[in-house]
């Protein structure tokens, strides 16, 4: 029987995004009981405490790990939403203390850090009778439109996959400072592209077998990037392209093109998967729908959009996995796989900028 108890949870990292997204979802959900909020910044911590009545505030998570996780009132799991360069050390400390981990992407800012986290998770599970869940926050997999698209691909509705492409851009004015510097895990590759790399892995059901990247620094360091990718090998390989930028209007759109149909997945416009067949009539209908959509009222800057469902669904799936109700994917290994791709793209782009070749 599934365990109905709420998951006793601590939120590590209480910045603007964590307070605006993760914490309200955790507090509202019957799946979670928020016991503690952790942030070294007193103002951020105090703001988080106001959002989570009854939760204790801490500057450091070490005190939360003093008790056995199975003890009544002890923290069982952590949701880590700190700046990216702190992800690895926080995840490894929680794993060493026997806590389940939901880690926001990326799993690390370099491969050594990321591999150390995955190795720590593997070692902890080898030593324990029960499995520690190590979830990476690739919430796109849980968006209903992406799940609908994957189901359509698996059913053969789109036919043989021919290409995939995506665009993900955000306004520069909405970025916290650490996201604008590569050293702290910022930049368009680690913050934006990594989501779409994993999502295209999820949609195509294929691993990335080659990647080339280009980087630009416009408003901040490495805030614009393109990736040319190949998913899979041989005759079943699917070419793909990802464009990301942290200095533009909001855009988050993916297209999957097959020889019998196509899917357009627009997270900003309406979050609904749009499918069309290969016949010209289907194309005309799709173009007519696009024209009508362009007449709809547009989002006004500063006005919050309607709630985005994928983060909440991802968190709920994490809690369910801890309680034995489902798989733990996407897990920390998926985080490592996506990180390997974006870091390879970064290395190639930097080599190209120095006058070398994209392959170094």
TrEMBL record:
InterPro entries found in the cross-reference section: Gfo/Idh/MocA-like_OxRdtase_N, Gfo/Idh/MocA_Oxidoreductases, GFO_IDH_MocA-like_dom, NAD(P)-bd_dom_sf
Q: Where is the GFO/IDH/MocA-like oxidoreductase domain?
A: 146-263
The record's annotation in Pfam families points to:
GFO_IDH_MocA, GFO_IDH_MocA_C3
Domain Gfo/Idh/MocA-like oxidoreductase N-terminal positions: 8-122
Molecular function (GO) terms for this protein are: nucleotide binding
Lineage top rank: taxon = Bacteria
> Which Gene3D superfamilies does this one have?
Dihydrodipicolinate Reductase, domain 2, NAD(P)-binding Rossmann-like Domain
Listed name of the protein: Putative oxidoreductase
Organism encoding this protein: Phycisphaera mikurensis (strain NBRC 102666 / KCTC 22515 / FYK2301M01)
Starting at the broadest rank, the lineage of the source organism is: Bacteria, Pseudomonadati, Planctomycetota, Phycisphaerae, Phycisphaerales
